[in-house]
Amino acid sequence: MSLTELNSRDAVLAALREFDDRGRERFLSTYGFGPARSYFLEYEGSRYDSKAVVGVAHGIQHPHLGPLRASDFSGGEATVKKVLEGLGFRVLRLATRDSSVWALCANPSRYRIREAVEHLDVDYWLVGRSNMRKGDAVAVWQTRDGEGHRGVVALGQVVGEPETRGDSENPYWVSVDDAQSEGIRVPVRYQRLSVPLWVDGSEVGQFLASLSVARAQGGTVFHLTDEQWARLVDLAGGFTSDEPSIAEAEAAVVRNRPSSGQGFGLSAEERAAVENYAMQRAKEYFAARWPSVRDVSQVCSFDLLCSSANGELLVSRSA
User: Fold this and answer.
1) What are the E-state strand segments in 146-295?
2) Which residue from 62, 102, 287, 299 is spatially nearest to 212, judged by alpha carbons?
């Protein structure tokens, strides 16, 4: 099957009507397409995802062949745009988004990634000389663990620009040398999954196994296509960007405006003194009971990490 078999303008119009009837999200998910990023069919004041429309129109014109799948053909200037313009439609190319999508790969024998996802507010990933930048989206991949599991354990977003630094305050490295190794790292804020997405014999597992990160023999950073990212987001039940919307920003401004009353709250200096006192007392308490007590409040969602010689861990907040 190929795009050359689509030569019916009426079939495209029928696909547009189905798009309108189902709505964009349902139309795309029904036929397995991700959202368009650059090329849109414009018709009667509305814009449609051009590749998905062409794939569905093919099945309408040739019901014995069925709709084309996203993997059956590529979108863009020389394919979808050419076919649609040949049928008299207008196709717009919009500016692509600045951010990219990546898969980050962690070996659980070197880094306890699932614990890091659970506890770290921001994790610094060693990315070498890749082009990762603030705003990029990521899927966090765990290689095979002791129970035979491998797959996606979190989604996330890069929340700062690359910088050269070590990661010695991170308690989830298995090797101290790895933690202290300096390199180009980016800060990533995780979005936790209700359950990991493991590679198995299911349709989802087969999709995960098709990702480039699943076939990697080495390396940390791998590209994802927009279609792959859209499928992962759908499997995860959605994705929340770290960038606030205009409405959210306006609401935050309203919430943070000072009230007309004086109030009797502590000053910033007084709150800091109280927090420092509480932290010191907590350290003294746990130091009397655990061989090692570390302050990890700057990198974790808790304050103190206590550990014993046999590998037992305890996490605690000072207040």
Assistant:
1) 151-158, 163-165, 183-198, 221-223, 292-295
2) 102
- Distance, CA of 142 to CA of 111 (rounded, Å): 10
Return the exposure string of 252-289: e unless at least 16 CB atoms fall within 10 Å of the residue's CB, then b: eeeeeeeeeeeeeeeeeeeeeeeeeeebeebbeebeee
Q: pLDDT value at position 131?
A: 81
Residues 6+ positions from 294 with CB-CB distance below 8 Å? 171, 304, 305, 306, 307
- pTM (predicted TM-score): 0.51
Residues 64-77 have pLDDT tens digits of: 999 999 888 887 77
Type of residue at 308: S
Question: From CA 152, how far away is CA 142, in angstroms rounded?
Answer: 6
pLDDT tens for residues 123-169?
999 988 778 888 899 999 999 999 999 999 999 999 988 999 999 98
Question: At residue 205, what are phi and psi to the nearest 5 degrees?
Answer: -60, -35
Which residue ranges form the domains of the chain, and what is each CATH number? 3-93 (no CATH), 101-236 (3.10.590.10), 265-316 (no CATH)
Helix 9-22, helix 50-61: angle, nearest 10: 120
Residue 49, pLDDT above cutoff 60: yes
Q: Which residues of 50-74 are buried (b: 16+ CB within 10 A; e: fewer)?
A: bbbbbbbbbbbbbeeeebbebeebe
* Residue position matching structure tokens 């007309």: 260
Task: Show the tokens assigned to 164.
Answer: 């050269």
Distance CA 217, CA 209 (A): 14
Chain mean position to CA 135: 10
Question: Which tokens belong to 173?
Answer: 């490295």
Tell me the two tokens of residue 60. 């309408």
